[in-house]
User: Fold these one by one.
Assistant:
Number 1:
Amino acid sequence: MDNKEQYKVRKEPFYQAQRNEVALYEAAYAARLPVMVKGPTGCGKSRFIEYMAWKLNKPLITVACNEDMTASDLVGRYLLDAGGTRWLDGPLTTAARIGAICYLDEVVEARQDTTVVIHPLTDHRRTLPLDKKGELIKAHPDFQLVISYNPGYQSLMKDLKQSTKQRFTAFEFDYPEASVEAGILSKEADIDPGLAGQLVKIGQAARNLKGHGLDEGISTRLLVYAATLIKGGVEPRDACRMALVRPITDDADIRDTLDHAIDTTFA
Ligand code: ADP
């Protein structure tokens, strides 16, 4: 049996609010409106949802979507075992049954048929048809659907359809403003604010290269990685090359430009 408690976020996650998103999310949840969180990778979307699940004291079921994911992966399937066939609920079905917040991370990655199954859950019906099982689930009153997506690097082909988009309320996230981001780094990795400020500066230099050789800037997540390595004793220039530059580019010119920015910052 699925245990609601196992999906609860037990410890308060550290989340630095950027604007009034916490109050807005609470209002959306109160009305059980579906929520979409847009923004570049590693800017705090998942952390925000985790924090909200904790604050609202609701179970959270997160599904990282990928291109091989089908509707059955979300909804469930029959399994064959020694005892014969038995049905196994997928994560979306579990969330609808127990009244969890279901967070579909990077939903556009999943195949089109998955977006179709979420539709009846996002309107007044709040139902989930399990076609293969011949069952129609009525979502638990606490159930809420949340999706994230990164509009930046999706090809037009992979964009969400308007008929899906227009079923959601939406938050537009971006990398935090410099002082806020420095605060996040110093809290997450326990580093001093001066060092956090230097890392943020490198992040910003890279973000200016977006569209000029870089598809995405350096994320807050990577800045946290760099901060963590430095905190662990790695020399700052090595830490930055390893956490901030090598992961994001294979282009020698861009790499040299960023390495240079690092050397200047930590000269
Ligand atoms: P994504 O937008 O890809 O879901 P995450 O929420 O996983 O990104 O954020 C990546 C990391 O960045 C987090 O693990 C956390 O360390 C840090 N982070 C980003 N934004 C915030 C924030 N507002 N408050 C606290 N941590 C943050």
Number 2:
Amino acid sequence: MTPDLSALVDSIVARMGAAEDRGQVASYIPELAKVDPAQFGIAIATADGRMLTGGDADTSFSIQSISKVFALTLALGKVGDQLWQRVGREPSGNAFNSIVQLEQEHGIPRNPFINAGAIVVADVNLGGHQPRVAIGEMLRFVRYLSGDDSIAINEDVAASETTTGFRNMALANYMRAFGNVRHPVDLVLGTYFHQCAIEMSCRQLALAGRYLMLDGRHPDGGRVVSPGRARRINALMLTCGHYDASGDFAFRVGIPGKSGVGGGILAIVPGRAAIAVWCPGLNDNGNSMLGTQALQMLAEATGWSVFSAP
Ligand code: GLN
């Protein structure tokens, strides 16, 4: 029997508000270093159409790597399973921005959720067009998923990453040498940095994640992806969504989740809920410290898990 979700959300907000160790905000993207670490938000969209929110649930933040879920969904729509010739499906066991496996693995990134994999996905989404076309498509897609046309890109964050994204430039150039990035690197990174700079609130993000709890259906009745594809995207979120802490996240929380260095996490309980949490301070693996704790608290109290009977 599910406990009173609204009371649970309130107690999570109270607990997270009182937490002393909040981690560190990302500083390698200068714009993100300006974000106030005291903020915390949570939103839960349930399969029966309810929305529960708490804390700063309507404050927009940089979704960063959470965008990799939406970019992957679009790329699979364009090239289908051919994508897997260019990107793997294994957890990397390395940091999100690591380059070390690319040499031995001939420029094929381990999965679509580490930076190298997301850069290949951005190359696919570019599809011979200008970055503004691919970025426009991505923005329309997240607006459609969440039913909210106010979602926008923070150009200052995109510019900040464009001037400091040396590791991503290295990854993209390295994969271009193997022929696994096919467009000019500046166009691919322009696409990637702008998708990362999309700003959404927890409410908007939870709404956007509903197709992944509904076997690929949009709540308006439309189909976003097939049930099999939704299941596989969830599988990748569980195994790869938190980089080298994906195992720990599965152990502690037990549901698919995708984090971003802006401090957000999108988590999916198939058939039950799409959840977004946000707290800007990160742990050593670059995942939201209190966001993870909040999801653990929620999963323990509700019993939500992909590893136990419903
Ligand atoms: N834009 C960020 C980067 O490429 C995204 C990383 C993340 O959110 N983990 O470094």
Number 3:
Amino acid sequence: MNKNIFEKIRDGEEKADIVYKDDYITAFKDIDPNAPVHILIIPNKKIESLNDIQEEDSSYLSNILLGAKKIAKQFNIDQSGYRLITNCGSDGGQEVQYLHFHLVGGLKLGKMISLSKSEKKKFNELKSLQNK
Ligand code: AMP
């Protein structure tokens, strides 16, 4: 089977700015950052998305959180604060089919969810219908 971009980065077959690696996770700089610090953390085991995690993956998942903490300290944002995000599926905006967590920080992050005006209008309409 063809490897996707994150599998190739994990295996050292595609160039990336790797900032941290251990037995469980690989972390590298996002190629198109949205913040001064924007790191992607992946488990070394290929898992497509949060929908696909299994009980036996728990050591990979816990090491993602422990790794995020270490990397935040490495980039000096542990005290100022940061956000850890995973996108799942189409509505979540997942583009790469390999579970990954965005660690972002280095500036004041805006609202957690930013909807376009039309999406917000649709959402408010739906809410008012449900309240009737
Ligand atoms: P998502 O939309 O959550 O699937 O995020 C995918 C992320 O991968 C995006 O932020 C991209 O900028 C990033 N990305 C795609 N290709 C690469 C690459 N070769 N190296 C580093 N980051 C990448």
